[in-house]
Write a structure and sequence with these properties.
Aminopeptidase, Alpha-Beta Plaits, 2 domains, eight-stranded mixed β-sheet, 11 helices
Amino acid sequence: MGMVYPRPDLADLPFTMREAELIQLRRDIHAHPELSGHEHRTHDTIAAYVRRFAPTQVLTHLGPSGVKGTGLAAVYDSGAPGKTVLVRAELDALPILEQNDFAHRSVNRGVMHACGHDGHMTTLAALAPRLEARPPERGRVVLLFQPAEETGAGAADVLADERWPRIEPDAAIALHNLPAHPLGQVVLRAGVFSCASVGMHVRLMGRTAHAAHPETGLSPAPAIAELIDRLPELPAEALPGRFGLISITHARAGEDDVFGTTPAEGILNCTVRTDTDDDRALLAERAEALAREVAADDGLVCQVSWHDDFAAAVCDGPTVNVIRDCAQELGLDILDRPEPFRWSEDFGRFTIGRPGVLFGLGSGPDQPQLHNPDYDFPDELIQTGADLFERAVHRLLA
């Protein structure tokens, strides 16, 4: 266990009121979810909150140069030389129809915070009053509120902002809540924490025919069927002894309610998933080659495009140990995970070229699973996550 540092004197801050205010903030954000890249109200709500607590600088509308993005960063700069530690949370919600009936359920039909990003960003916002009360003694802390995590586009958009060099960190940390784990349990893994993945969209084009004479057309349906069979088997061949997964997520040939004409166009979507970026690149290349080979054999035109591109989140061992020490000092239960999570997280881009840690925080054994329509982030986790973040940033800066 590392050395315990003394808590700052926060006696003058009304913590009970502050906790209630944070819960209100979280529930307001939950009630007003916004999809990836459209988090305008969320951006403004968080900006208004953190500005109350004297950040050195606030960078708004982070995004690619020339684009008014929805990313936001609040900087707490000691003015003394030192490291920059970035703590990151996500802003976006999901296209899911919420089935909860509590007062703070989504008012935007068909959109909901089913992954806990409302709780993640509130946990990060809770650092602002703590950093005002106890600023870093050296270096800087950057609170980054990242858009578009669910599509894998948000981190890349923030990195593409011309202002990124002003806040580029020496280390980065983030958390993700984990249903089915005990409430407040800290889940750690040195090395790959979550997988790399990318979505492949295949469009096959042939020629229509009368359904009575299909031999006069060129249907993509047989090629679609062949790819449905062969793509999931490709990882074992391309990555012997290593983890790889290709999941079919959508397939279509022709249009609904058409019976007299064979199709000229077919669509197939799949997700290519591995536990390293290099293997993902290799498997994606092999998957595209297979799609083009099958299309060529059937005389079809093939177009391939790529979507939802996620890097693996790789956790630096020494930084994992800092999180472990802080969790032990706070009396939190710790689980060392033996293998990576199969899901992907856009935080992975922030672990490329710098030490970083994505850790899990248990949200309860009876909590609905992520992306379920009855999910709701437990308010009790806000202070637990903020306690751990606060302790970790001061330790990393020291």
